[in-house]
Write a structure and sequence with these properties.
The complex is a heterotrimer of chains A (about 240), B (about 350) and C (about 800). By secondary structure, chain A is of the alpha/beta class. Chain A has eight helices and ten strands. Chain A has one domain (about 50-75, about 90-240): P-loop containing nucleotide triphosphate hydrolases (Rossmann fold), CATH 3.40.50. In chain A, the strands form two sheets. In chain A, strands 6-7-8-3-9-10 form a six-stranded mixed beta sheet, with helices on both faces. Chain A has a four-stranded antiparallel beta sheet with strand order 2-1-4-5, with helices on one face. With about 350 residues, chain B is mostly beta strands. Chain B has one domain (about 5-350): AttH-like domain (AttH-like fold, Beta Barrel), CATH 2.40.370. In chain B, strands 1, 2, 3, 4, 5, 6, 7, 8, 9, 10, 11, 12 and 13 form a 13-stranded antiparallel beta sheet that branches. In chain B, strands 14, 15, 16, 17, 18, 19, 20, 21, 22 and 23 form a ten-stranded antiparallel beta sheet that branches. The two termini of chain B are about 15 Å apart. Residues about 1-25 of chain B have low confidence and may be disordered. With about 800 residues, chain C is an alpha+beta fold. Chain C is about 65% helix and about 15% strand. In chain C, helix 11 packs antiparallel against helix 23 (about 670-725), helix 15 (about 410-440) packs antiparallel against helix 16 and helix 16 (about 445-495) packs parallel to helix 24. The radius of gyration of chain C is 32 Å and the shape is elongated. Classes of the chains: A alpha/beta (about 240), B mainly beta (about 350), C alpha+beta (about 800). The interface of A and C includes residues 93, 98, 117 and 128 of A. Chain B: Pfam families: CrtC, Lipocalin_9. Chain B: InterPro entries: AttH-like_dom_sf, AttH_dom. Chain B: This is Iron ABC transporter permease.
Chain lengths: ~240, ~350, ~800
């Protein structure tokens, strides 16, 4: 998929005020030695443009699975995922790679920086892959994320908080329309997590992308516009006030 | 006389000593013995090789006819050339190189062969008594049943090449002939010379195998023996040489050394039927080319007018085969001729440097 | 493309952070390529030389007359033939050494040389007098001058001390040769009046006398192509041996590459997942991974090819000396860089790298994005394969045994060898693992228990390096045993075989008779033992018929493998023959068998009365009574002699003979000199083997070093908990050191039986197939001790760097590792 096509697709649905992300009746099960176990059972979820949503639930509730499916990291069994008007449910491996590269970005709990690249190269990495590297924007991100003094450091020389800030920098450098985060503060202490969230929300707002974050923390979830709670593979509760479609 | 060996020498042995001599830097004989007047020839020793001189040859030409009267010419030559003076070294270190040429000429064909040998190992050589000159399986030597002291008077001659092979018996019916001043043969005004004697009185008979066909031939043969150290002057580029058998039994040898200065050196010997000789001087002799023939990419005079004023000789020569060219390593024209005019007969013509 | 580029760059960034790993990969691949392409270069150079040797004389349609027996003939035969109308030209060929590098020298006679062939160019327009007038000239093509490091006019000294005439460079000179005048060659080579062949411009006319009527059967006309064919047949097994060693070394190198790639892929599993997560497609990842392998292969392969070239140049003198001495095959000149060879070297590096990386590549490409990053999952999975490995090992041993039982060629010999080595390589981790498990079950102290368990966990990571070591050690034990066994056997055999004190060869039969008469008057000469020889072909195989005197000397000393009680009596009667082991094996003859020998007057049947060892002779040999030989081959020259002399009289007799006869004696030497020459020939042969062997060992040591270095990082995480539990760093370092030593020592111990198997395979299977003779199988325990010491030294050296790194790790770092990587 070319950049131009992506932009075209993005513009048309915007005119009809369609949601950025629409997940309908999504099912997913995993094979186990004891037979298949259903993780998601008919999940529905919608995200508006620029909206930030916290995805909560107990361990095993399926929230990470949902995030992975939306992020094109895994393949759903049934249902539909539409991002920016494009049905991405059944994309090929190459199509999903392009989706991950160009339309959305993911921040992981384990940071997943590339150990052999320094911080600057890590931040620029996905944008370069996508062919969208913008030095000015990357520079701005680095400053907003307070990483400017750490550019030459390698991941192993960074603290957890620093690594996660670099990871969100990498994600946003590509200017995604949707940022996904899978327990980004799970490996951080509380103070660092708070600092991180403040910075993250700041740059997400500056980017104008939608934000879907999986978290255990009620306190952090509360900082997002809306909270969705998953239980036993289904959406149990959706709370929030602003920009509810 | 003959001297393609000069080319041989010039091309093959461009040793510093020779180059100096060629450049005309005095009479540098490079350590070889020099040819001086007044030294008598000694037989049979002089039949053999003279390794103290730079070069020498044994040269036989024959004018022959078959049973139908058709004419043939045969040539057999052995050259010796030394690359360095001094005592002959043993084995491969020997400084002599031997070269053999053999040719057969008919009106329609001229076939020739060439072979080389190093001295010191026995592939070629000459012994004086009993006389034997050989290179490979080519021989010019005393007949097997000839008395040991018969010298050159009863000899056999054989050679072979591609498509030809010959074997002849030769018997001399006249004496050996000393050329020039009792064997001292001057070649230039500045004193270059050779020792030179001939046996022009051979009767020859034998068999030529030409392209597998045996032809019985007989006729007259002429042998030249010549040795020298300095032969050509720097300005001399080649020569024209005639050996003539008159029908009346007299013989004539004439040569001209062509000089770039335009002043050719001419000389000759009139040989009466009993072997008595008269030396012919430059002004007594006139050699005039009459007709040029293109052969082997060059133009060679193949018809001549020959005059010897003191003898009233005035003849025109014609080649048996105008293409008698020896395209050997050192090429020259050599072939049988016939002549008519004040006298008539047959002979051989050799021309070099064209 | 952008995707592939950035993925490629990112993959490569790994190596910058892991130079140790890169070093292992690079060195492994470079050395593997070097050994392989070095051997290929040697073989190619040899083949080129054989073709060239033949084409020098066969150019322009010329043919060759060669001696029927022996290496040279007197040049009188040349003159005889010329005077009989045969247009022949003499030549004398030999290999000369210049500063250890072999060059092929030929002496020719330019005036009689046929025009048109490779040598004809010399004649056309050449300056003959400078060529053959003293001191003469050496004419050589510019590339040979370059190899000699000489320029026009230089005089090069041969290693014999004699000086070549001044050099003249000529583009027309025969390629790869030093051409001199025949006279110069005879002097340089100490062969006055001798030549090794006559070049025949064209067959003589029908009316020319026949060859036999001129020279008897001293010469024979070499059929076109026979020379190349003979050389190739005789040297084939030598080259196959070289190739096999090259292949073995290449495989050991690939083990390293495989290990290094495996570790690199394992360490980058997380990176690959991240790459996939941020949108690198499988296709882009595959392209980048293959590109990375290709780039590494080309860079390391390029170095390897260069090193191979150097290696081949270094080994060439020994290879050339062996080939010349064993087969009379002349290999000469500096190596030239052949583009085909260069490309094939890079190609083999690429193929090798791809094969070595195949597992890792497949794993990386099939890697699911979401599986939890577990760096050691792969190795644990490998342990699951232990049982499968054991079965495969049994299969390989079975195949090796089958190849031995039913095979009857050099190829099956090597197949048996390969099966043995492959099986052992597969079995090693299984055996080591079992040993460690045993140790674990016998230990109860916690630290000791941890030591065993942890060693076992380490094993998969070290297995490849240890396997490479196993192969190298085993090869060392095997080849070392074979070489040493041969050295002892050969020395003993030479002592018996060279029973006479003086050996000489007369220039011709009349000279030989005069010398014999003179010797009869010398009281110190106890016995004169003439010999004569001629060549025949038995079943197409070049075989020498050797006429000897059945003197008491031989009856007492001549070494035999097997003999009938009346062997010598039968020989003396003229109806019995002794045959060489090679001939017996090739023609499947035994005691009492009949052997038909083709003579000029028909077939002559003799009975085999004994079989004798004839080490190193590529031709067959049958020994008969000398008078019987002269009866059946009247033209065989009786010019070689052995003399029994009181040892203290030997030098004086030789001096007297030389003074009396001068050049009438072509060669004369005492027993000691001949022994020295013979021994040197074999030292040359085995120098090549030993060099390749040593290099293989070095490669394995590097493999171990590389494995330990790359394991170093992950070791910290594994050791940190033990440290946290209260074991000092010093103690832990000691344990680490001990572990490597123990594993290496265990490998070395296991290498001994494997090496013995290998040695047995070499002497009893490969050698018999390759050379036609069998060596006694002997064992040399002191060699094993050496190997063990070498193994421990290797291990100690290889483990020093990682252990130092461990000792230098600060407690704070360990604490952090402990906290983070739990």
């Amino acid at each position: 998929m070319t950049d131009a096509a992506t932009r075209d697709d993005a513009r048309k649905p915007a005119q009809v005020e369609a949601p950025l992300l629409r997940v309908s009746r999504l099912n997913k099960s995993y094979p186990t030695p004891q037979g298949p176990v259903a993780v998601l059972k008919g999940v529905d979820l919608t995200l508006a443009r620029g909206e930030s949503v916290a995805l909560m639930g107990e361990s095993g509730s399926g929230k990470s699975t949902l995030l992975h499916l939306v992020g094109g990291l895994d393949q759903a069994d049934d249902g539909e995922i539409v991002i920016d008007g494009v049905d991405v449910t059944w994309l090929s491996d190459t199509g999903r790679a392009a989706l991950r590269r160009e339309t959305l970005a993911v921040v992981f709990q384990q940071f997943n920086l590339i150990p052999s690249l320094n911080l600057q190269a890590n931040v620029a990495f996905q944008a370069r892959l996508a062919g969208r590297f913008d030095p000015a924007w990357t520079d701005e991100l680095i400053h907003r994320l307070k990483l400017q003094d750490l550019l030459e450091r390698y991941p192993e020389q960074l603290s957890g908080g620093q690594q996660q800030r670099a990871a969100i920098g990498r994600a946003l450098a590509v200017r995604p329309r949707l940022l996904l985060a899978d327990e980004p503060t799970g490996n951080l202490d509380e103070a660092t997590a708070d600092d991180f969230m403040a910075l993250a929300l700041d740059v997400v707002a500056a980017t104008g992308c939608a934000f879907l974050m999986v978290t255990h923390s009620e306190r952090l979830a509360a900082r997002l516009q809306r909270q969705v709670r998953l239980s036993a593979g289904q959406v149990r509760l959706s709370a929030g006030v602003i920009n509810q479609p | 006389m003959s001297a393609k060996w000069i080319f041989f020498a010039a091309l093959a042995f461009t040793s510093p000593a020779l180059a100096q001599g060629y450049a005309g830097l005095g009479d540098d004989a490079g350590g070889f013995e020099r040819v001086v007047p007044g030294k008598p020839l000694v037989f049979p020793q002089d039949f053999g090789a003279h390794p103290k001189f730079r070069t020498e040859w044994w040269y036989v030409t024959a004018n022959l006819t078959d049973e139908t009267g058709a004419s043939y010419g045969v040539q057999w030559t052995l050259f010796r050339q030394a690359s360095a003076p001094g005592e002959e070294r043993q084995g491969w270190a020997n400084q002599n190189v031997w070269m053999g040429h053999a040719a057969v000429t008919s009106a329609s064909e001229h076939l020739f062969a060439e072979t080389f040998a190093r001295g010191g190992v026995g592939q070629a050589g000459v012994t004086a008594q009993p006389f034997r000159a050989w290179i490979d399986d080519w021989n010019f030597s005393a007949q097997d049943n000839a008395p040991p002291d018969s010298g050159l008077s009863r000899v056999k001659l054989s050679a072979s090449g591609e498509n030809f092979r010959y074997a002849f018996d030769l018997v001399a019916d006249g004496p050996l002939v000393r050329q020039g001043d009792n064997g001292f043969s001057l070649k230039s005004d500045d004193g270059r010379a050779s020792y030179y004697f001939s046996q022009p009185f051979y009767k020859i008979a034998g068999v030529l195998t030409l392209r597998g066909k045996e032809i019985k031939l007989s006729g007259r043969a002429w042998m030249d023996r010549e040795w020298s150290t300095q032969y050509l002057a720097a300005s001399q580029k080649g020569w024209d040489w005639f050996s003539l058998h008159f029908s009346g039994g007299e013989k004539l040898m004439l040569f001209r050394m062509r000089d770039t200065s335009g002043r050719d050196f001419r000389s000759g010997t009139w040989i009466s039927a009993d072997g008595a000789t008269q030396k012919l001087d430059r002004d007594d002799i006139a050699l005039t080319p009459l007709e040029q023939t293109p052969v082997a990419g060059r133009s060679v005079p193949t018809r001549w007018r020959l005059q010897v004023k003191s003898r009233g000789l005035d003849v025109e020569t014609a080649p048996l085969n105008a293409a008698s060219f020896m395209a050997t390593s050192f090429p020259y024209w050599e072939g049988p001729i016939a002549f008519h005019g004040s006298q008539q007969g047959k002979g051989y013509l050799e021309m070099t440097g064209y | 493309m952008k995707q592939i580029f950035w993925t490629f760059v990112t993959l490569l960034s790994h190596w910058r952070r892991r130079p140790g790993n890169f070093f292992a990969l690079f060195v492994g691949l470079a050395i593997a390529t070097a050994l392989w392409s070095g051997v290929q270069a040697l073989n190619a150079q040899a083949r080129k030389s054989y073709d060239r040797a033949a084409s020098v004389f066969s150019g322009g349609g010329a043919q060759s007359l060669v001696p029927t027996s022996g290496a040279t003939i007197p040049q009188e035969l040349f003159v005889k033939l010329r005077l009989a109308g045969w247009k022949v030209s003499p030549a004398l060929e030999a290999t000369v050494l210049v500063r250890g590098t072999p060059f092929q020298l030929i002496g020719v006679e330019p005036l009689t040389l046929p025009r048109g062939g490779q040598l004809g160019g010399l004649v056309d327009g050449g300056d003959f007098s400078a060529f053959f007038a003293p001191p003469g000239q050496v004419i050589a093509p510019p590339e040979v001058l370059r190899d000699l490091g000489a320029k026009d006019g230089d005089r090069i000294a041969l290693d014999t001390g004699k000086s070549l005439p001044p050099l003249r460079s000529s583009a027309q000179a025969p390629p790869g040769l030093l051409t001199v005048d025949i006279g110069v060659a005879q002097t340089l080579l100490g062969r006055p009046g001798q030549m090794s062949r006559l070049i025949l411009r064209q067959p003589p006319d029908n009316d020319a006398p026949s060859l036999a009527s001129v020279v008897g059967n001293a010469l024979r006309l070499l059929p076109a192509g026979e020379e190349e064919a003979d050389l190739k047949r005789l040297t084939e097994s030598f080259h196959l041996n070289l190739t096999a060693f090259g292949l073995l070394a290449f495989l050991v190198g690939l083990f390293i590459v495989h290990a290094a790639f495996g570790l690199a892929f394992e360490q980058r599993l997380g990176m690959v997942r991240t790459l996939r997560a941020v949108g690198v497609s499988t296709r882009a990842l595959a392209a980048a991974l293959f590109g990375e392998v290709a780039l590494l292969a080309l860079v390391a392969g390029g170095f390897g090819v260069a090193a191979g070239f150097w290696l081949a140049s270094a080994l060439l003198p020994n290879v050339a000396a062996s080939l010349d001495a064993l087969y009379g095959a002349r290999v000469a000149g500096g190596l030239t860089l052949d583009p085909t060879w260069l490309l094939s070297g890079l190609g083999i590096a690429l193929v090798g790298a791809l094969v070595a990386a195949a597992g890792g590549l497949a794993k990386a490409l099939r890697l699911p994005i979401l599986a939890a990053a577990q760096p050691f999952a792969w190795r644990q999975a490998q342990q699951v394969f232990m049982r499968r490995r054991a079965w495969l090992a049994l299969l390989a041993f079975g195949a090796a045994f089958a190849a031995y039982l039913w095979g009857d060629s050099l190829y099956t010999g090597f197949a048996a060898l390969a099966g043995l080595l492959f099986g052992a390589a597969l079995l090693l981790p299984v055996l080591l693992s079992a040993a460690l498990r045993l140790g674990e079950s016998f230990s109860s102290a916690p630290l000791v228990n941890w030591f065993w368990a942890d060693s076992r966990q380490q094993l998969p990571g070290l297995a490849l390096a240890l396997t490479a070591l196993l192969l190298a050690f085993a090869t060392n034990v095997g080849v070392g045993g074979m070489v040493e066994g041969f050295r002892q056997t050969f020395a003993h055999w030479l002592d018996e075989r060279l029973a006479a004190e003086v050996y000489y060869e007369a220039a011709g039969a009349p000279e030989a008779r005069r010398i014999e008469a003179w010797l009869a008057t010398r009281p110190e000469v106890l016995a004169v033992l003439p010999s004569a020889r001629t060549s025949v072909r038995l079943s197409g195989w070049p075989t020498e018929i050797f006429g000897m005197t059945p003197h008491e000397t031989f009856r007492a000393h001549f070494p035999m493998i097997d003999q009938a009680p009346d062997a010598w009596e039968a020989l003396q009667r003229g109806d019995g023959a002794l045959i060489s082991e090679q001939l017996a094996r090739r023609l499947k003859l035994g005691l009492g068998s009949s052997l038909d020998l083709p003579t000029a007057s028909g077939i002559w049947r003799v009975k085999v009365g004994g079989v004798f060892p004839d080490y190193g002779n590529p031709r067959g040999q049958a020994r008969i009574d000398i008078d019987a030989l002269t009866r059946h081959w009247p033209d065989a020259p009786r010019v070689s002699y052995g003399l029994r002399v009181a040892p203290q009289e030997t030098p004086r007799l030789i001096a007297a003979m030389q003074a009396e006869f001068g050049e009438k004696i072509v060669r004369i030497a005492d027993q000691a000199a001949i022994k020295k020459i013979s021994t040197r020939i074999f030292e040359h042969t085995f120098a090549v083997t030993t060099a390749l062997n040593t290099l293989t060992l070095v490669v394995s040591a590097i493999a171990l070093l590389a494995s330990l270095t790359t394991l170093g990082d992950t070791r910290l995480a594994q050791v940190a908990p033990v440290w946290a539990s209260g074991v000092s760093r010093r103690r832990l370092a000691q344990l680490e050191f001990l572990r490597v030593l123990a594993l290496t020592a265990a490998t070395a111990v296991l290498a001994v039986p494997l090496g013995l198997g290998l040695s047995w395979c070499l002497v009893a299977v490969v050698n018999v197939q390759a050379f036609g003779w069998r060596l006694p199988f002997e064992i040399f325990p002191w060699q094993w001790a050496e190997i063990l010491a070498l193994a421990l030294l290797t291990a100690a050296i290889a483990s020093i760097a990682p252990i130092l790194r461990f000792v230098r790790t600060t407690p704070a770092q360990l604490a952090r590792i402990f906290a983070n990587e739990r």
